Amino acid sequence: MISSRFPVLLSLLVPALAAPLPVAAQSGLEEVVVTARKREESLQEVPIAITAFTAEQLEKAGVTRLEEITLQTAGVQYHSLGLAIPGRVNSSIRFRGMDVNSQVPTFQLGTLFVDGIYVLGGTHSIPLDDIERVEVVKGPQSAYFGRNTFGGAINYISKQPSMSEYTGDIGLSYAQYDEVELTAALSGPIIADKLAFRVAARKYSMGGMWTASDGGKLGAQASDTLSFALKATPIDGLTLLARGFIGYDEDGPAAGGAIPGRLNNTCSGTYTNNAGEVVAPMLWFCGNVPEQGRAISVLGTTRIIDSNTQVTSARALASTGDANWLLPNLIQRAQPAAIAGKVPLLEEIELERRVERYSFKGSYEFAGGWTIDAVYGNNTLRANWVRDFNFTGFDNSYSRDPQLSRDKSYELRLTSPQDRRFRWLLGVNRYEQSFLSSATGGDAAFLCVDTIAGPVIGTCRPGPASNAFALFPNTLANTDEVENDAVFAAVAIDLGAQFTMNVEGRYQEDSFRRGLTNPQTLDTNRFLPRAILQWQPSEDLNLYASFARGVIQGEINQLVVDADARERAQFDALGVVGQVPEEILDSYEVGWKQRFLDRRVSLNAAFYYGLWDNKKSRQIYPINFTCDNSPAIPGVTPGCRGATTVPGEAVAGEPARNADGTPALQNSNVVAPLDVRIWGAEFEATAAVTDRLQLGGALTYARSEMQTGFFVTVASIAGSANITGNSNPRFPEWSGSINGTYTAPLNDDWNWYVRGDANYFGKTYVDLDNFATCKGYVLANGRAGVEKEGVRLELFVKNLFDDDSWAACARFLEFDLPQDGAGNPNIYQTVIVAPQLKRQIGLRASWKF
User: Fold this and answer.
1) Which end of the chain has fewer CB atoms surrounding its CB within 10 Å, N or C?
2) Confidence tier at 451 by pLDDT (50, 70, 90)
């Protein structure tokens, strides 16, 4: 059922004709220029679905994070909870009702670009204070942008150095929970009209909003960034631009929590699932996940936002005889050779990330309007993260997740004059990527390995592994290398005065290499087209229809590739293959853009339908592996992969078995394909109601449906693995936003203003089972201030009504619990939740000169 608050939001949105963050002028709305097709075009005239935010719009709305941008944009969604991992770690951008079940950046369905250059992960590290414009482009953008633009792309366009005068700005804000942000920038000519510079810096920190059960703070964040640019115009027609960016993030333990299904079960009796089966879900949620104050944690309390924050561990003392065992054996354990010395070395439970980005652009405009552009980008991300693996506060499981990524982009393109009936663009592109990570649980330590069946937690019970510990070392299992070579082109032909045909395409050769010890390679060639028929019967009306194809690289199931004949037979019986084919999206779209009332009102709408083949789903199967001759590791059964036996009982070459002789089953994570269809509608509008009153808003309707497929991971809780007819998780069917700004003179020098925003984020499914849901919510913000000639003083409040709904929910396994008697690793499952940021009141002052 749609939230009761949503009809109120909708009733305000439609008559107001609102859209995100409008900027009004006395003669109408400001004309916004975008570059989503590698050339400058009017936002209202480009025949694709784009939402654009200028620097002035971002400042007036107080937007500082990507989450705030997506809340006010139709058709896109982003939260810091990536997959089932809270905190500023992953970069999963979702478009049009789609969800990606992978935290690996190689397989994302939408990604971030900076000045048109691909950024591999690290979206949290990019500040908005040095951004001139943000473009959110929806629908497959593979023809122009290439990899990981399956569902769309977000492009940050940086501010450029001033060639003629010195300009700068300083900003300072303070809010509750010790949130402090200081920004400064300076730009100006070195040689007038020939050489100029720009430098910008930001220092940000926020104290933890939550307190863990061990007394530590949760959710603290800190970021320092420095960006710099040089722009040169040595001769007429030639522009050279070099940029650099350095960022450093250091966060404390993330604010997240776990709500176990076994302690919060709301399922009773039988239900009919979307496949038409009568099922009996158990130990799970049939409806909304319980809210704060009602949900029960694994420790039996109502404190859900919890986590271990201390290095010293009572459990480690009991299991190993050393309370500080985690520091030398996990946190500062020697890294694998491939990343040793290349990622931060930590000393506590925290996240540390270092980002460097460098780019160069050269553009030459010939006589007659011909241009040639050359682009180079080089990005490096080094990160390490130590955390409570289950976000429970139960002192048992910890993990260390180091990550090292490097990528380079090269592009050269030639563009014809754009004022002719026939115009075109031709380009070549090369992309190289190296990503080293084991993703979640790179190194994992379990201080209590309890092999007695039954969901009892809180102490290590007597048994074969009482007070034992296990350390699973990092294998860098998600390591990959990518080489992508492409040729792309676009042709536009005016068919008379009103019709234009746009034909675009990209031919790419993609080589994907997975693994370090037994590397496997997937080589694919693919043509990615987009065709758009545009009709502009007047200057203020733009109608278009389009078809576009997107692609995501296929995947390699390394466990299947490395399996022996007996192991492979088990995978074959489950239908699991070694190489998973590419994901392909065929998307159809109809769009309408119109301006009314002397261009004081604009309304944009897009309607889409897509067929998504081979969507990756991560399945967890119990497999009985064969014992091998792996080197013995303290705390891990020597010589037997997956067996929980005592030393000496495992025999190399034989099936793994437990101490009592039963088969030992290992929790095996593999990828299987599903087929999905998506459809929906997006509306955005702007209105300069008067010269003083400006309104804005957006509305999204997004649906998805699994055409066929099974998801065995949820079978034990959902009563069936059949997910036919189910929807993608994590993306609401309904969402929307409204905002309004009123400005008036205070005296001859000063103006005063007030602004309000309301953002609705609808109910979402927690996972593909479609039984558990995360309820919808409304976030409201307000600000008021005075301004004159570059000086701005403002009082603001975020989350005005202190909404404490879960910002995001995702299914996870209770790894603190033993397997059941049959070795089923999926019987006890939980929901990882991320909280809303609490209400904050703050002050901001800025000065532009």
Assistant:
1) N
2) low
Q: To which H or E segment does residue 548 belong?
A: strand 541-552
Nearest Cα to Cα of residue 90 among 840, 834, 836, 838: 834
**Residue 326 dihedral angles phi and psi, to the nearest 5°:** -65, -35
Q: Of the candidates 429, 548, 416, which has an alpha carbon nearest to the alpha carbon of residue 493?
A: 416
Report the DSSP pairing between strands 110-114 and 152-158.
parallel
The mean pLDDT value for 432-457 works out to 72
Task: Supply angle C-alpha 150, 155, 159, rounded to 5.
Answer: 170
Classify 700 in phi/psi space as left (phi over 0), alpha (psi -120 to 50) or beta: beta
| Dist. CA 345–CA 839, nearest whole Å | 34
Query: CA–CA separation, 37 vs 158, rounded Å?
Result: 17
* pLDDT tens readout for residues 639-670: 354 444 444 455 667 887 766 677 777 778 88
- Phi and psi at 566, nearest 5°, equal -70, -40
pLDDT tens across 151-174, in order?
999 999 999 999 999 999 999 999
Residue that wins the pLDDT comparison between 78 and 590: 590
What sign has the CA pseudo-torsion 53, 55, 59, 62?
A: positive
On the question of pLDDT at 320 being above 70, the answer is yes
- What six digits make up the tokens of 823? 């070795």
Q: Residues 698, 32: contact at Cβ < 8 Å?
A: no
Can you give the pLDDT at residue 441? 67
Picking from 755, 730, 728, 733, the residue whose alpha carbon sits closest to that of residue 744 is 755
For residue 690, the one-letter residue type is T
Distance from CA of residue 255 to its chain's centroid? 17
Q: State pLDDT tens for residues 112-128.
A: 899 999 887 767 778 88
131-140, 174-183, 322-331, 615-624: least confidently modelled range: 615-624
Q: Which long-range contacts (CB under 8 A, 24 or more apart) does 286-290 make?
A: 286/771, 286/772, 287/771, 287/772, 287/773, 288/763, 288/773, 288/774, 288/775, 289/259, 289/264, 289/766, 289/772, 289/773, 289/774, 289/775, 289/806, 289/809, 289/831, 289/833, 290/259, 290/264, 290/266
Count of Cβ atoms closer than 10 Å to residue 509 Cβ: 13
In whole angstroms, give the CA distance from residue 39 to residue 116. 11
CA distances from 403 to 308, 354, 386, 514 (A): 22, 11, 12, 15
Q: Please report, in angstroms and rounded to a whole number, the separation of the first and last CA atoms in the chain.
A: 51
Q: Which of 21, 121, 112, 108 is nearest to 61 (CA)?
A: 21
With residues binned 3-state (H G I as helix, E B as strand, rest as coil), the percentages for the chain, rounded to 5, are 10, 50, 45
| Burial label, 787 (beta-carbon count in 10 A; 0-12, 13-18, 19+) | middle
What amino acid occupies position 34?
V
Q: Is the pTM of this model over 0.70?
A: yes
Query: How far is residue 251's CA from residue 639's CA, in Å, rounded to a whole number?
Result: 38
Helix (H, G, I), strand (E, B) or coil at 315: helix
